[in-house]
Design brief:
The protein is mainly α and 44 residues long. Helix content is 82%, strand content 0%. The chain has 2 helices and no strands.
């Protein structure tokens, strides 16, 4: 296996984990506190 390809897959995996974590955290925040931030953002 080439080192460059392996490094590229590590970067892709890290980005995928970060995107999954951040999107999951945002979805959890929306479901946990639906009235804290989103109604104010909709009014603005």
């Amino acid at each position: 296996m080439q080192q460059g390809v392996y490094y590229g897959w590590k970067v892709v995996a890290a980005l995928f984990v970060m995107l999954t974590f951040t999107s999951g955290l945002a979805f959890y925040n929306m479901s946990a506190w639906p009235c804290s931030l989103w109604p104010a953002a909709r009014r603005a």
